[in-house]
Design brief:
Blueprint (H helix, E strand, L loop, with lengths): L7 E4 L5 E4 L9 H11 L5 H4 L6 H10 L1 H12 L23 H18 L1 H10 L11 H13 L25 H8 L13 H5 L3 H14 L8 E8 L10 E6 L2 H17 L14 H16 L18 H4 L2 H10 L4 H12 L2 E6 L2 E2 L3 E2 L9 H16 L1
Parallel strand pairs: 3-5
Antiparallel strand pairs: 1-2, 3-4, 5-6, 5-7
């Protein structure tokens, strides 16, 4: 129920309306809130964008009555799925070093190191410092790692029976209308590969910011994500060079560029409006390790001062596969308790309830895996969601 929120219309330069505080109560019905939000959006351009296939008069009742079907239809019409087979760039085969002379081995290692430095200088520097840069061991095959990761990802989330306190206030600023300026700012400097839908960043940038903003606002109002965008492609990155143990790989999930752009906007809003304890330094701006080390040193120095000696207990906790196993039940309990508006809680619940991913190892890709626990490493919202769950544990 939204009876404690006070919202009003504020038209921006795009012709859309923002929600601002005002001394009048909003409707008590979430459905009416969604209807009001859709009324504030300028949907007239849909007819031009879709060549007359969709217009404002037909899409609005569909979004109100069957939001999932409506956003899926919009996605199919606006960004048709590519039907040609997907191809991957071939990785050069590793050169066996066993039969090479010392001179040829050094030449090959030097060439490999120079190429690696050109591709990623920081990663190469770390490999040199760790003395792992000479490793040429071939990674594991898909069949070797699939059972471990399928079991981990598809395992049902642990039920959270904790009692979460109600929020001090609902941060409706997060659900304000997304403007074209926000989209433009969020598109600056974006890079990376296309997701499973094969929609590239250059194609996304080719769409007017006003249109992308309106599309994202439709997703907020519908509290749904297009079904096609709930799928990811997960690549395993080795934490320990040369190891074939599937547990020492980090899964990086790539989703659609549209989803990444939308979550980039939401992540900035969450960071600005939803309070997270300053004691939480993981996935936060700044040098978290340095800050916590300095803090611990100060505490130890103060507690061990001979003039005021006092007992001190320090506990180190390292949770194995924490990001990959965080409970979805905990996420959806922590979100409303932190004051995240109901439409965005519903959006995230819908996104994660239908989330699937394909595991990619080399040129092999697995069948889809239903993801029932954990957050997606590589998604900008995942850092906030993980920190929010940890924050609620510390507070409660």
């Amino acid at each position: 129920m939204l009876n404690d929120a006070r919202l009003a219309r504020d038209t921006d330069s795009v012709g859309a309306s923002s929600i601002v505080a005002e001394d009048r109560p909003i409707t008590d019905s979430l459905n009416e809130w969604k209807s009001e939000r859709l009324d504030r959006l300028d949907l007239e351009f849909l007819a031009e964008w879709t060549n007359g296939k969709i217009d404002a008069q037909t899409i609005k009742p569909q979004l109100e009555n069957n939001p999932q079907e409506a956003v899926d239809m919009l996605q199919r019409v606006l960004f048709p799925a590519k039907t040609t087979p997907q191809t991957f760039r071939r990785t050069p085969k590793a050169v066996p070093l066993e039969g090479l002379s010392g001179k040829l081995r050094k030449r090959h290692e030097y060439t490999k190191l120079q190429k690696s430095y050109k591709d990623d200088c920081s990663k190469t520097a770390k490999e040199v410092m760790d003395n792992t840069w000479r490793c040429s061991t071939k990674g594991p095959a898909l069949k070797d790692v699939l059972p471990f990761w399928r079991e981990l990802l598809s395992k049902g989330s642990v039920q959270d029976t904790a009692v979460y306190p109600p929020p001090e206030r609902v941060h409706w600023e997060i659900a304000e209308i997304i403007t074209s300026d926000e989209v433009t700012r969020s598109l600056r400097g974006v890079k990376g590969v296309a997701g499973p839908d094969r929609l590239s960043w250059s194609q996304v940038k080719g769409v007017a910011s006003e249109r992308l903003a309106c599309l994202f606002n439709i997703w907020i109002a519908a509290a749904r994500a297009p079904s096609a965008l709930k799928e990811g492609l997960t690549t395993l990155i080795p934490k320990v060079q040369g190891s074939n143990d599937p547990a020492v790989f980090r899964p990086i999930t790539v989703t659609s560029c549209l989803t990444r752009l939308y979550h980039r906007i939401l992540a900035r809003r969450f960071e600005n409006f939803v309070p997270i304890s300053e004691m939480q330094r993981g996935f936060r701006p700044g040098d978290g390790v340095g800050t916590n080390v300095s803090l611990l040193q100060a505490i130890i120095r103060e507690r061990t001062d001979p003039a005021k000696l006092r007992p001190l207990s320090v506990c180190y906790v390292d949770v194995k596969k924490a990001i990959d196993s965080v409970s979805h039940a905990s996420i959806f309990s922590a979100l409303p308790s932190a004051g995240v508006p109901a439409p965005l809680v519903d959006y995230l619940r819908d996104l994660y309830s239908g989330s699937r991913t394909h595991l990619r190892v080399g040129h092999e890709i697995s069948d889809p895996i239903q993801v029932r626990q954990g957050v997606k490493q590589g998604d900008l919202l995942s850092c906030f969601l993980f920190n929010l769950v940890i924050d609620s544990c510390v507070k409660n």
